[in-house]
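re: ur question from earlier - yeah i can do the single chain one, its not a big deal. heres the input i used so u can compare w yours
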Amino acid sequence: MAREAHPQEVLDELRDSLVGAKLAPGFVVRGEELYYRNAALDLLRERARSTGLEVCTHDTKDGGFDALRLQDDLVSGGLFSSGRMVIVHGPEDLLKKDGSTERPVARAIAKFLSTGAGSVVLMAEGLRADNSTVKALVASGGKLLSFRKLYEKPAPWERNPDPRRTEVCEWVLSRAQQLALKVSADQAVLLVAAVGADLCALESKLAECKHGSPDFFKQLEAAAPVSPFELAASIARGDLRSALRENEGLFHSGFKGKDGKLEVKPDALREILFSGLRSQVRRGLFASEALAAGSSAEEAAKVAGVSAFQMRDFQSALGARDALQWRAMFADLGRLERKARSGHTVDENDIALFALQWRKSKAGARS
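and the output i got, formated as tokens:
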């Protein structure tokens, strides 16, 4: 499968193609990344106005949308201009066939393309390339522009994955530079962790940073949702400072899952954290026992089921304690879980105490 082009590359190519050139008869602007779709539309609209085209916009999700008016804009000429740019947001349903028959809007677009009366722009998140109207548009000399989501995680094949090098974080740093903002790579990671990978939301936060408090990132860090799995990794490494900060953040601000929903219920957060801790401590126990039996570090990692993505945290955690201490930590975790499931309260204070108990000492031993 061919690699999908970076959205910025697609946008730059579009910008270059519009310089001094006549607009193509049509454009399909599709993909999940709304920020880049909007940026492409801004370029097209600006070029249309600079060449004297009348711009007509229709949005199928607007309560006042009128399909007949859209058809009229497509089949009738501009009254006071040389032609029209007709922009259609959300055209997917209008372009579905009725059996084997094209629907009225699809027929109107085909007629518009044949007349060379301007340019039609179809703004859609999921319009397929094999749609008959899309194929007709491309065959007439139009362009299909696809804007995928930027990657928010390091590539799985990287041996030492760095969250600061993800496409989303790189976008934050680039956009911050354009806005004359001083943002470090670590601050970009924090911003993405707090807001998510929605570029429109990140753009809004950068604007807030530019015009807001000088303590913007400190306030953001205090309020940012925390991953219980990151907290589990910090506790396993014996990193007390990170563990206490993340522990407070988790139970105060919650955890945003893969579905984007924010979980704030303490009992649910505690159970997710226990799951992460079990995995971390069990991995440390298995690997330390393998090392004690004479295995190499690579063999111990294999025994523990550690992936390349997990290797950096694993190596740091493994040096925090020996096999006897890992076994004792596993037993302590079991007691904490049984306490929670027997009806006793286990909250952030108990987790903080557990992290304090198993912090890494200068000698690498339990304090």
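Residues 362-367 have pLDDT under 50 and may be disordered. not sure if urs matches, ping me
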